[in-house]
Amino acid sequence: MKAQELHNMTTDELLAKQKALKVELFNLRFSHATGQLTNPLILNSYKKDIAKVKTILRERELEIARVAKELNKAPNKAKA
Predict the structure, then answer these.
(1) 21 within a domain of the structure (yes/no)
(2) Cβ-contact 56, 14 below 8 angstroms
(3) CATH of the domain at 39
(4) What is the C-alpha separation between 27 and 20, in angstroms, rounded?
(5) 52: exposed, middle or buried (C-beta count within 10 Å: 0-12, 13-18, 19+)?
(6) Count of the separate structural domains present in the chain
(7) Which of 1, 4, 9, 28 has the fewest Cβ atoms surrounding its Cβ within 10 A?
(8) What confidence tens digit (pLDDT) does each residue in 46-63 have?
């Protein structure tokens, strides 16, 4: 999955994507444990996709916090 595709998603879509990726990773791990997984390298790709989603969510969280902090720091010119 490309990071640009993830950046274009809304936060709710990202949360849903993260949940779906985690469920699929669980299923792949189960298949791997039972010896049914033909390509074990796919586990790494799902882990990386989950990390990308988490990174973008965290970036958005920090941006919201930064904007709120700047709004609270705005100087009040009404004081005299």
Answers:
(1) yes
(2) yes
(3) 1.10.287.310
(4) 11
(5) buried
(6) 1
(7) 4
(8) 999 999 999 999 999 999
